[in-house]
Every structure is written in C-alpha cells, then in structure tokens.
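Data availability excerpt. The first of two example chains:
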Amino acid sequence: MTIGVFADTSLLTAEPGKLALYFLDLEVSPTAEDKSGDATILISPEGKVMLLDCGHPESAPQVIDALTKLGVKRINYFVASHPHIDHIGSFPVVAAKFPIDRVYRTKLEYPTDIYKAFVQTIDQYHIPVTYLEEGDSFSFGSSITIKIFNPSQTITYPKNYPDNSTQFVNNASLAMRFSYGLSSVWFSGDLYIAQERTLVNKYGTTLQSDVIKANHHGADTSNSLRWIKNMRAKIVVAMQDQFDSINVYNTYKKYGAEYHLTLNDGLVKVVMDDKQHYQVFDTKDSWMN
C-alpha cells in the first residue's frame, strides 16, 4: 500500500481573517503496528501556521501534501502533544520539507527510537524549543491565546520506565485551551479518564470549550461521562483509522455535540470567527453527524 496524496482536496483552502482547523484523515499500511494517529493544521486569522502533532511515519506524505495544498511555505509553530509514534512519527520528514520556527513540547523524555529521531531532528535544524507545563500560556498570532492545563510542573516517572508506560505517557499529554475572542478550542492529546478526572476536579467549567478534539482518538479509555458533561462541546472531532467506541459517540451526541470521525467523515475542516460562529465541513458524508 502506497500512502500518498489526499483524493479529495476541496477543503484544503485558506480562510483569511478566520481561524481554520484541518483535522487530517491519515492512513497507514495494513501491516503497520500502530494507528495513523493525529495531525491537525491550524491557520490563524493573519495566516500563521501551526501543526499540532504529525501522525505515524507512514503518514508523512499526507501531512506534507495537505500543507503544500494549503500553500504553506513554513510552519511557525510545531506542537507535540506527547511523544508516541502516532503523534510525532512524521516529524523528521516534515521538518526536512518545511522550515519550522519553533517547537512546543512537554519536558517528558521517552527513550524510543521515534523520540530520539524527533530530538535529533530538532537539533539538526537548530529549531528553538519551548517546554510547556500547567500554568503556561502563549500566543498563536495576534488574536489567539493558548493556556496550558497539563502536564503538571513536576513529572514523576514510574518504576521501570518506559516499560508498560502507555497510560503514563498519555496522561502527560499537553492539554491546551485556545481562546479566540468568545470562541474556544480544546486539544488534550491522549488523556485517559484518570487525568480527565484530575483536570475536572481542579478546573471545572474553566475547561469548557465549543470545539474539542476527542481524547485518545475517541476511545473509551478516555472521554468519560463526567468529562463530556463538563466540556459542553458543540463540535467534537476524533482522529482515528478505526471506530473505537459507540458509547463515546452516543454520549457526546446525547449532550449536544456534533461528532466527526475522520474514518467516516474524512478530512474535517472547522472554520470560526471570534464570536462563536462555527462552520464544519467533511470530505465524506456519513451517518455520524
């Protein structure tokens, strides 16, 4: 199987003056041991470009194709939610194609070949790095503020790390709320239920966001009832090459959210102004929304 370009590129168009999010529908070969993962392109109202995660190594051609068709010449912000293969695997190939102004990541170290390649690529191209933790914030262009709610300032590694560390690494994902006037967007990587509970207990309704990426690709390891009720999302997007949980889908729908899954809906584009006006476009029609 050859992973190449997107068949339908009708949604890979710029939206000047608005915030546009492109949730990519990535693929991997049938023999791949890991899922295709997450990659979202965000373009600010003035044209700043953020790539939030970049998927599995096999998915690199699709990420590059999407960026190219959007007319991207450089990536102003690369954000790594956490260092799993399906979130940073394509980074060396993407960085070889596009100049990157700055990498934003957590302090979590993860001794795998994929992580080592990520760090070596940053060093190779002399990309400045900002380490993010709970309490930090930074700007995306001139009108969008991003506040960080996770991970905590102190990372305590479990015994025998990195053995059996999947949940630990996922729970150290960046949790970020984008504020654009009255509009809001939430990303928190692959948080599991335990860390969702911790954030809800600590921050409550402060976390509420109109547009959210479903944690851990929409799986029921995450997206608990309490989380869903607290977030009060209007639009939910899950990036996954399989359908993980009908219960998660049904619960989001029950509490008033549109639910979009890249497996069924293809590339999902969300466009917004700063007054809570949202438009959602899919490259495929499905029964989900």
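And the second chain:
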Amino acid sequence: MSTPFLKMNGLGNDFIVVDARTRSFQPAAEQIRAWGNRASGVGFDQLIAIEASPEGDAFMRVWNSDGGTVETCGNALRCVAWYLDQDQPDTELKIDTLGGKTTARVLERDAKTGIASVDMGKPRLDWTQIPLSEEMNTERLELQVGPIDAPLYHTPCAVSMGNPHVVFFVDDVSTVDVERTGSLIENHPLFPEGVNVEFAQVIDRNTIRMRVWERGAGITKACGTGACATLVACARRGLTDRHANVIMDGGPLHILWRSDDHVIMTGPVEVEFEGAL
C-alpha cells in the first residue's frame, strides 16, 4: 500500500512529511536511505511523521536521511504547524517531539506557503544536558580544530535545543570547509550522541551569518534548532542581543531568546509537491 506525503521545506531544509495519525508508519533504515537519496529517490534532509499525541495536537517523529532517528527539527516543526493549521486555523498548536514539548502558531498562510512561529522551549546549557562525555564549561568548550599552537577553530559554545549543538565563532564563514570540519566534529568523543555543528559570523548585534553541518544529514541549507542554538551561544558570549536574524545558506530566521528563557523561532514554510511512497 502506498503512503501519501508532502514534500516541504523551510529555507531549503527539505522534508518528506507523512500524516501517520491514523495509519502505521514504521519505515526501516534502508527504506529511509533509499527515499532520501537525491539521485535515485525523492531526496530530503529529514523524513517527518506526524503521529497522534495523547497530550498535544500531534507528535512529530524525525529521521535523518541516513536512517537514524533524531530528537527534533526546528524547520520541520514550522512545516508540521502549517499542515495542522489547515484543520485548526488560528490556534496555538501543541507539537510533541522526542526533544520535548513545543507550541507553534501559523502567522501567515496560503495554498503553498506560510510563516510560522515556534516556541522551542528553554535552551539546555549544562554539560549533562548537551550531553558531553566529561564535565566542561559549555560556554567555552576546551575543543579545537587544527594545530595546538595555531588552531583553525577553537573554544566553541555548546547548546541543546532538544538536540545537541556546538557553535564555533569565525571571522568569515564563507572560508570554512563545513563538510570537512563538520564531519570531523560530529562524531568527536566529547559528544557521545553526536552533535550538530554551526559556524557563526557575527555581523552586528542583531545579525548573524551561519552555516551548518547537521548530524546524520551533512550540509543543509538551514537548521532551525541550529539557528536557535547559535543565537543563544552568541548572546551568552555577549556578541549579540537576545534577538537576531540568523542568515543561513537558505535564508534568514528570526530568533528571540525571551526574558522567560524560552527561544522563539519565526520563519517561512513552503510546499513543493505531493507524492506517495
């Protein structure tokens, strides 16, 4: 039996979205890898299943294109909110994930696009919450890439937004070899569950240019939780205010780290096409 899906993206970070609230959807890792192959399959960064939730409006399950399950995905949360908003317009939506509970609201929408805002909850900043394999100050990790006496990148900040992130601060993000460095750091022993890797260039107090290597997916055009983690990291270091536009390869997200410690992510949603698996 075929399974219908929507191909969606948030700033080019693309997904297959399956409504599994009334049907079983339990794909094997090899199926996910085949579907995710951009040469022979549909092609995507993440596969998303919208499942029933006993407490919220839905539960969002996320697989990376390598077949592995991850806790959450910020850009996908906006896409799921847009999908649910079709039946529950102008309401605050409760979307549960393996990374925690979130709420979302669609601010603008038409047949194929929209803008959604998601309360991503509080950032987790303790070393046990990232998690790290040893106790360390997460604002300034003892980690570097390159020669000891002249490292290319060093002293990053670690943040969990329901999934683990490490943020390196650079002068010019365009010069970073994201694939080489990101793949090296993703499976570093300091991160027992792997880690998403961001490279951040602070333009001014309210503007950050960022590129990302996503755990299990590689280079992507955007990462919602990564944008949130980057703003939190920059604010912790005193490099920016607690709100900024985070500009990624796919475009900008607005991130606000509110006074109540919740991180609010706002950005676009796009439906590319419908299909069936």
